[in-house]
From TrEMBL:
A motif (DGA/G) lies at residues 214-216. GO terms for molecular function: hydrolase activity. Gene3D superfamilies: Cytosolic phospholipase A2 catalytic domain (3.40.1090.10). InterPro entries: Acyl_Trfase/lysoPLipase, PNPLA_dom. Signal peptide: none annotated. It comes from the Bacteria. Residues 26-227 form the PNPLA domain. The active site is at residues 62, 214. A motif (GXSXG) lies at residues 60-64. PROSITE patterns: PNPLA. Keywords: Hydrolase, Lipid degradation, Lipid metabolism. It comes from Agromyces mariniharenae. This is Patatin-like phospholipase family protein.
């Protein structure tokens, strides 16, 4: 094993049980629009006087890993302003390593392939191995410049490339073994690489020779179980806790939340309003929908501020 990655095995936070006031913010995956919605919700809460980015622990998966890194380097208000001011253009075809994959038709194709892999898998571990094998095939067929371009894209989204002082966990999956992975500031890799790995839903992404895929395949798009031992857990789920895998696999968000509560954690969950549901899923990679997703999240954050304040403080 590469010495620089000696700490990258999965960890949990059971040790926090000795500190019953510890808080956790869980930022789920959900594509480009999901990232914008997360920023909007947190900005709405922030402008109402509740700063949930001061959580003792932040768990980020896929688009949520990007948000976690963004909150570490800029205020929610600054991030929201950047989303709303961005000059976004519709996706009309491939332009760069992942742009074609992100087009609406490609998202639909991706979901169809994923459903087929799920249908052939016996459990989540088997699914991770199957998705990893497919990601390695896509990596082998990708242009040599893809990795560098994807890393540059991720880096451009982060206000700072440095891991923050407070604890952030970023999820991923080892593409070669299917093993679940959790990165933190002691993992020996750059924050940019951790986020790029967590968001790699197509071809595998390599860090020091190790290949990784999207953290949403670890268990689900939220991975809220990593907050085990925290007294208060706030979960932001762009997908609304929905999952394509069978409930019998035991990886659904609802199952994880029940387990957290059974172990003594207080849990609150925020999901998109019904009126905003069309902004996610198959439309989740449409950049023109980022501003409305952010505004929808902001309105929710402001509307839920009193409830969250009572829970968080």
């Amino acid at each position: 094993m590469n010495p620089s990655l000696r700490h990258h095995a999965e960890t949990t936070v059971d040790d926090v049980s000795e500190r019953p006031t510890r808080t956790a913010l869980v930022l789920g995956g959900g594509g480009s629009t999901g990232n914008a919605w997360l920023i909007g919700v947190v900005a709405g809460l922030f402008d109402a006087g509740i700063d949930v980015t001061d959580a003792d622990l932040t768990i980020g998966t896929s688009a949520g890993s990007t948000a976690a890194a963004q909150f570490a380097g800029a205020t929610p208000t600054e991030l929201l302003a950047a989303v709303l001011a961005a000059d976004v253009q519709p996706l009309t075809g491939p332009s760069g390593p992942d742009r074609g994959r992100n087009a609406a038709g490609s998202v639909a194709d991706h979901l169809e392939r994923l459903r087929a892999l799920i249908a052939s898998a016996v459990d989540q571990a088997d699914l991770r191995r199957r998705v990893g094998a497919r990601a390695l095939e896509l990596e082998a067929a990708s242009p040599e410049t893809r990795q560098a371009q994807w890393r540059a894209t991720v880096a451009s989204r982060l206000p700072s490339p440095e891991w923050p002082g407070r604890r952030i966990l970023i999820t991923a999956v080892d593409a070669e073994t299917g093993a679940p992975i959790v990165f933190d500031r002691d993992s020996g890799i750059d924050l940019v690489d951790a986020v790029a790995a967590s968001c790699s839903s197509g071809a595998a992404y390599r860090v020091d020779g190790h290949a990784y895929i999207d953290g949403g395949f670890r268990s689900n798009a939220e991975n809220a179980d990593l907050a085990s031992g925290c007294a208060r857990v706030l979960v932001l789920s762009p997908f609304g806790g929905r999952s394509l895998v069978p409930a019998s696999w035991g990886t659904h968000l609802a199952t994880q939340l029940d387990e957290l509560r059974a172990r003594g954690s207080g849990v609150e969950t925020i999901v998109p309003d019904r009126a905003a549901e069309h902004l996610f899923g198959a439309n989740g990679m449409d950049p023109t929908l980022r501003p409305p997703a952010a505004r929808a999240g902001y309105d929710q954050g402001r509307a839920l501020a009193d409830r969250v304040a009572e829970f968080w403080r």
